[in-house]
Design brief:
The structure holds two protein chains of two kinds.
Chain A: H1 2-7, E1 40-49, E2 52-62, E3 67-71, H2 78-86, E4 93-98, E5 101-102, E6 113-116, H3 128-138, H4 143-156, H5 172-184, E7 190-194, H6 202-219, E8 222-227, H7 230-236, E9 239-244, E10 247-252, H8 254-259, H9 264-269, E11 274-284, E12 287-292, E13 297-302, E14 311-316, E15 322-323, E16 330-339, E17 343-350, E18 354-361, E19 374-378, E20 385-388
Parallel strand pairs in A: 3-8, 3-9, 6-7, 7-8, 13-20
Antiparallel strand pairs in A: 1-2, 1-4, 4-5, 9-10, 11-12, 11-14, 12-13, 14-20, 15-19, 16-17, 16-19, 17-18
Helix pairs in contact in A: 3-4, 3-5
Chain B: H1 2-33, H2 51-58, H3 60-93, H4 99-111, H5 114-125, H6 134-159, H7 162-170, H8 175-204, H9 207-212, H10 220-229, H11 234-264
The chains are: A alpha+beta, B mainly alpha.
The structure holds adenosine-5'-diphosphate and magnesium ion (MG).
């Protein structure tokens, strides 16, 4: 078990997180010691509910100031991870460190972590201003300063003059902003957001994404965001941690996740992918010769460190497979076409390869294919990636 | 089709009005008689007068009874409201096998006939020297009032959004602060309703009062009962009308509280 895990260890982040030039909004004294140390470190964290393993052996570092997204299908353990970090639950095994100190036993109210809940969790009996003042009042901030900071926070989320309203008098988007402002106002060490945009309609969601991104850049605060929406994750994040069935599959910058997935799950969860079953026949340099089950041998890049004979899945994105002639083209028969406006998605049955999906841009000339047409498709081997077949292992 | 639904609608309204009239007529029959100028308990009224109300306020035994009733009701509430509220909160917080059984046990005084409770309490209290005392009456009333508070507060607590408590904690509030600033204000309508029910239950209670109190501790309902048996004069009706007014007032207060809490939750 341990050995398999080592082999496909998530790559470390290639891209350093952005350091905000405008740290004025934020308490800089806190970040002075050890600028480069991760703010949070999960080491071997598992969470079991009875016999059920909600989280399995999670190793994750959260860098100071980054926007990290936990991405995964429903039930993959994202909320559980967040709750462990927020302090509403404690791990079955493993340790969680914040700023170098273990915090598994620290109660939530002493962690200094702002949380934005999916249903906002605004206090219905308090006004917007009182909601924002709440974390300051419990910290015994002076009345005058509270007033000032509430005003500032309201204008930060474009809700000037709304302080006197009750949460029930606000729209969903406005409540969302109040929740965000309330999590920010007390200058927490980091902010956790659990699917905060899930309940908003599409336009508002995109708008809030932009605002969130802006706010992150403006405040330079560490944000941990949870979503099951891959496009939201790619759009917002410095890095994305992909969860599947309680395991952490890969942590990387969005571009790397898309271009260099490390597991079949990541390859198909982030964007679309053709996954072809095969075995490693030979390894040369960074490349591997993979014999597909349908017979063909492809020379592809590899993820992780597979051995000769290992089962793999070869991933190739639909937009990378093209219709064309040439020596390396494969004969294929069109079995399905769906028109998507800007592209056509064409499924073909390809000799020696298997079933493949292509994405052909509309008006590219090559898009005039019909069902049952015999065509030739080009598979650029340089863009293929052999991924460890974890299901077959 | 439309006509038949109309008939049903109006038929339903008529039936409703009849039932309501049946329930309220006895009450409305009493109230005007308490303003009767004469001393006969029958219609037609012989002129209007407030003299029976004046008689109530100038009769020591009525004043004494009012005082006793108020002392007992307020003391009952002072015991039952905290106990019922804490029980509701505690039962909500923990899960254990036998939880619904314990709940049933706690609200059983609401279901057991009052006379049974009264007899039981009498035999239990007499040796302890609590019979013929207001203290005994208060304790007995607390027994029947706690379930009322428990049930109403329990309803409020079960509506309470756990997420709000977590939110408060994440914002830095200790469990105690969270309880004071979030839990209590949000379940306050339930606590107030429970308190009103408890007060009304004690203020109107006559069976236990008959059992436990002696001549020195007569409460208003008890005095009323003996009043109707001994010398039936319109003073009794004036007292009854005052009781009705108080009950109506409490009911109004209850509606107001529930209306306000409904506004929070939308
Ligand atoms: N308190 C709990 N008791 C039992 N199972 C739980 C509990 N909390 C979460 N789970 C289970 O753990 C898994 C992961 O849940 P969660 O972290 O909420 O997923 P996500 O947020 O990724 O959708 C789910 O299958 C869920 O049913
Ligand atoms: Mg979740």
């Amino acid at each position: 078990m341990r050995a398999t895990k080592e082999r496909f260890l998530p790559l470390p982040c290639d891209e350093p997180w952005k350091e905000s030039p405008e740290m004025t909004q934020h308490d800089t004294t806190r970040t002075e010691p050890s600028e480069t140390r991760p703010i949070v470190r999960f080491s071997g964290v598992s969470k079991h509910y009875g016999a059920f393993r909600a989280l399995c052996d999670i190793d994750l570092e959260i860098q100071r100031g980054e926007f990290l997204t936990l991405l995964g299908p429903s039930g993959s353990g994202k909320t559980t991870s967040l709750m462990l970090l927020a302090g509403f639950d404690s791990p079955t095994t493993g340790t969680i460190e914040m700023d170098g100190t273990r915090i598994e036993g620290l109660p939530a109210h002493k962690r200094d972590i702002g949380v934005v809940f999916q249903n906002y969790a605004l206090f219905p009996h308090l006004t917007v201003a009182e909601n924002l003042a709440f974390p300051l009042t419990v910290r015994r901030v002076s009345k005058a300063e509270i007033g000032e900071r509430v005003e500032k926070a309201l204008s930060l989320v474009h809700l000037d003059g709304m302080g006197g309203r009750k949460p029930s008098q606000l729209s969903g988007g406005q409540q969302q902003r109040v929740a965000l402002a309330r999590a920010i106002i007390f200058k927490p060490r980091l902010i956790l957001l659990d699917e905060p945009l899930g309940a908003l309609d599409k336009n508002l969601r995109e708008h809030m994404q932009a605002e969130l991104k802006h706010l992150h850049r403006q405040l330079g605060i560490t944000m941990v965001f949870v979503t099951h929406d891959q496009s939201e994750a790619l759009n917002l994040s410095d890095r994305v941690a992909v969860f599947n069935k309680g395991r952490l599959e890969q942590v990387d910058a969005p571009e790397l996740l898309y271009e260099r997935p490390c597991t079949p799950f990541v390859a198909s969860f982030i964007g679309e992918n053709n996954l072809l079953d095969g075995r490693v026949e030979a390894l040369t340099g960074g490349l591997a010769a993979i014999r597909l089950e349908a017979g063909t041998v492809l020379n592809t890049k590899v993820a992780g460190r597979p051995a000769v004979g290992d089962r793999v899945k070869v991933g190739i994105r639909p937009e990378h497979v093209t219709v064309g002639q040439g020596k390396s083209a494969f004969a294929a028969r069109v079995v399905e076409i769906s028109y998507l406006g800007d592209t056509r998605r064409v499924a073909v049955e390809c000799g020696g390869i298997g079933r493949l999906t292509l994405k052909i841009p509309t008006g590219a000339g090559a898009d005039r294919v019909g069902i049952a047409d015999e065509i030739r498709v080009v598979i650029p081997e340089a863009l293929c990636r052999a991924l460890p077949d974890t299901d077959g292992a | 089709m439309l006509d038949s639904t109309r008939i049903w609608l109006w038929g339903g309204r008529l039936a409703g009005a009849l039932v309501l009239g049946f329930l309220l007529l006895p009450i409305f029959a009493i109230v005007p008689l308490s303003f009767n100028g004469g001393s006969i308990l029958a219609y037609p009224l012989q002129g209007l007068s407030l003299k029976w109300y004046a008689a109530v306020t100038s009769t020591p035994r009525w004043l004494h009874a009012v005082g006793n009733s108020l002392i007992v009701a307020v003391s009952t509430v002072a015991i039952a409201t905290p106990l019922g509220t804490l029980a509701a909160l505690g039962l909500d917080r923990i899960q254990f096998p036998g939880k619904s059984l314990l709940m049933a046990l706690l609200i059983s005084p609401m279901i057991v006939p009052v006379i049974i409770t009264a007899v039981g309490v009498y035999f239990f209290f007499a040796p302890l020297g609590l019979a013929n005392s207001l203290t005994g009456l208060v304790l007995a009333h607390a027994v029947i009032a706690v379930p009322l508070v428990l049930v109403t507060v329990n309803a409020s607590v079960s509506q309470l959004d756990r997420g709000l408590l977590r939110a408060a904690e994440s914002l830095g509030a200790s469990p105690m602060t969270t309880f004071r600033k979030i839990t209590v204000p949000l379940i306050l309508p339930g606590i107030v309703s429970g308190t009103i029910f408890a007060f009304a239950a004690s203020f109107d209670e006559v069976v236990i009062a008959l059992m436990i109190t002696g001549p020195g501790q007569k409460t208003l309902p008890r005095e009323l009962l003996s009043g109707t048996r001994e010398n039936l004069d319109p003073t009794v009706l004036a007292v009854a009308s005052i009781l009705i007014a108080i009950s109506a007032g409490l009911l109004l207060l209850l509606t107001l509280v529930q209306h306000r809490s409904a506004k929070h939750h939308t």
